[in-house]
Amino acid sequence: MTTSTPGTIYLEDMTVGMSRSLTKILSADVVAAFAEVSEDRNPIHLDEAAGKASVFKERIAHGMLGASLFSALLGEHLPGHGTIYLGQNLKFLAPVPVGASVTATVTVKEIKDRKRVVMTCEAHVGDTLVIAGEATVLAPSRA
Amino acid sequence: MTTSTPGTIYLEDMTVGMSRSLTKILSADVVAAFAEVSEDRNPIHLDEAAGKASVFKERIAHGMLGASLFSALLGEHLPGHGTIYLGQNLKFLAPVPVGASVTATVTVKEIKDRKRVVMTCEAHVGDTLVIAGEATVLAPSRA
Q1: Which of A36, A98, B68, B113 lies at 20 to 30 Å from A110 by C-alpha?
Q2: What ipTM was predicted for this assembly?
């Protein structure tokens, strides 16, 4: 579930503070699919007993799965199609239980020279900030 | 294809310079599966014509798909099961064409206090460094 349709917001139309969000339930099926594509089949993500035995006391979603929602927002919504992804910093602040609904948000933090834009990236489960970071992208330009 | 079997290398057994690698072909099917789990259905990844029309002149894999291989190495091989993922920095240095074979490598850079370990993360396609970064993890301890 996103707050916008896929497309492009050009550099010339971007302003600091502009943001886009996406909400996804990281269900057991989604986590299992991510395990296949990433090769990360760590039992803490896939096995109920391993999750219960862990420090988290339950199965958790892969941190990079939650972080992948930033890629979707940057590549499809803000700036969207035509964006070139240069870099991403991530801090995994809290575990995301399997089945949780995660809301990822990207916000324009700084518009720099040579089409470079720094985006603040945050993911929440309810009121809990679970992932925080920054992305640097080259935004598509009308020029 | 990995150079080790899944398991745990405990903090007490880790040394600076220790490394593990994983090679995966980012096929059209893998890229399509990542698009579904991440919600990133940017046509540059999925549509041949959009790829050809792009600055890259071909379809490319999601940067975060390549980066997800670091998660697999950290969570399954080095340190492996029991690792807590604290943070990840990534620079996307070169595009990865759909169908390319990517080799991801994580290497112990620094063993800090309180079980914190900094890992160098690199992904190559042939001789080309396509992703570079660092991860910070809490390593499992025998203590």
Answers
A1: B68
A2: 0.94
